[in-house]
Amino acid sequence: YMGDARYNMGNSLMIGCAKMGMHFVACSPEKYFPSAELIGKCRTAAETECGNKTQKVKLRCQKMKKSLDSV
In sequence order, which residues have a C-beta less than 8 Å from that of residue 64 and are 6 or more positions away? Predict the structure, then answer.
């Protein structure tokens, strides 16, 4: 997900991915990461709801080049 991961869209995608056993990557500045509490809940959901003990909720902060035309 590229964008502000603190609010509805980013949070919903992260929760959905955790419940379905999918990896979630938020590509945004660190100040726009989801809360630590929600990250913990998603890790727990990944383990208990889909039995995926290796599921990881990954957060990445990447600088994007200003000259990009598309992503």
Answer: 71
